[in-house]
Amino acid sequence: MQAGEHRAGAGPAYYVFLAGMALLCLAPVVLMVVTSLKVRTQIFSDKLTFFFVPTVSHYAAAFGDAALTRTLGNSMAVALFATALTMAAGCMAAYALARFSFFGRGVVSGATLLMRMVPPAVLVAPIFMLWTYQFGISDTLSGLVLAYTALNLPFVIWILQSFFAQTPPQLEEAARLDGANPFQTFFFVILPIVAPGMAAAAIFAFRIAWNEFILALVLTNRFTRTIPVEISLSISEHNIAWGKVMAVGTLIAIPPLIFTFIAARHIVRGLTAGAVKG
Amino acid sequence: MRAGYATRLSRIAPYAFMAPAVMIMAGALLWPLAHSVWLSFHEWKLGTPQDAAVFTGLENYRILLADPDTLTSLRVTLVFAFTVVALEVALGVGLAILLERPIRGLNALRSIFIMPMMIAPIVVGLLWRYMYNEQFGPLAQLLFMFGVEESPPWLTSPDWALASVIIADVWQWTPFIFILALAALQSVPTSVVEAARMDGARPRQTVLYVKLPLILPVIIVAALLRLIDAFKVLEVIFIMTEGGPGLSTEILSMRIYKTAFEFQQLGRASALSNLLLLLVAAISVGLVLFNKLRERAHASG
Q: Is A214 within 8 Å of B238 when comparing Cβ atoms?
């Protein structure tokens, strides 16, 4: 009995500890945002400043920089198109893997799983060469969209498969008896049901495409650069304008963080897919 | 007649559904991987036409394996990957055990715990580069407040740099293990815990001898997934140290990038890529085998 009470009870120490952990996770991110709101002299001080009048001058400088706003637009376009393409191809493939038995299913399923493990660095040299010489799409935004779609597909197919597997097969049976063909069944009966799962998968696909750096670095030029590449170039100089860099860093972090807060539950499920049976 | 059409349609359906994804993955993943194998047997310099590639057989591999820098890089990679995973598993599981309680607030904090994982690796690298700045970084400022005027050379000394990038990775990914371990602990049936208590087990004994063994499979899978991801790391280190000072943080993926785009040896970079791929493939096979074993144990048990 005593053990039970002990277990349910959580003293103040427990909450202090929990708050400390949350603070550790938050602190660097908060410091980035805070720094982006400080003026130069406060940033380059050797003392911590807790109270200061925030300035938006670094954000104004970032948005006033035409090259930078272009990279922001490039990033948005690439991430959105790559996500759309990934979802379109990924949903269909995941459905086929979850519901049909067909020739080559085992091979495709296994290969998809293994391709998820490929480190992006491994792809940098061959993709650069193929995109430049074979496909002629280096330095273009569509080249990046293709690379990100391919990079995302194995992961997205894997998560979506579990969502499709959970839909009751009776639905397809009923649709078939009503005279629907497999394509109608998929688009009008099954897809609407797995919409929440699709949202989770789309968030992951967007996050990868939005955050990706190394392929973008070698596959783009001055005009097609994405924002992670732009920021990496601005800190390789000796005199780093930390205020502006932190402002741009905050801008890059915002979209994924918005998703984190609106869909934490689904994201946890996606992150843990494969470890805990999902 | 109509039935025949319907049957035919359902027969081609799976192939039609698979086609776009398979085409994209074949063209933009498998082909590059195959090309990387081809390239690793050739010498080709960046900026020269493609047909300037010369077949050199195993020469690239020979050069790489004879190069002490490759071994250094391999060592750095292994130390980095295994250290971060060990620390993250120990911290994550430890914290989960400590904090596992039926309390509502815990799940509300989940959004905060997954924040570090959602942010772009490039921004994480940036953040920590700022944190570690020896003149005005927050860590230096904090130490200054406690009277330490000389900041440790976080990223500028070869003795410190690897530990510093390890800390950044541990910051980013410990919550992953924590969330997983917590979910696993919470899914342990209360009847099992109750039974242990009836048998006179103390709370600590219940955790160590009853709960921990039950969640061990989940922890192992999580650790293997993290290990695979740790071999993928590139961007955080790229921004923080670019592999330096010296070769102290030059993980394999960093070296692949440098070999290809700084030394412009794409053939050699591909050979190095294939070595990294072999490493990751070995762990992946381990993961798949472990999952198979688990399924079998599940089916028979």
A: yes
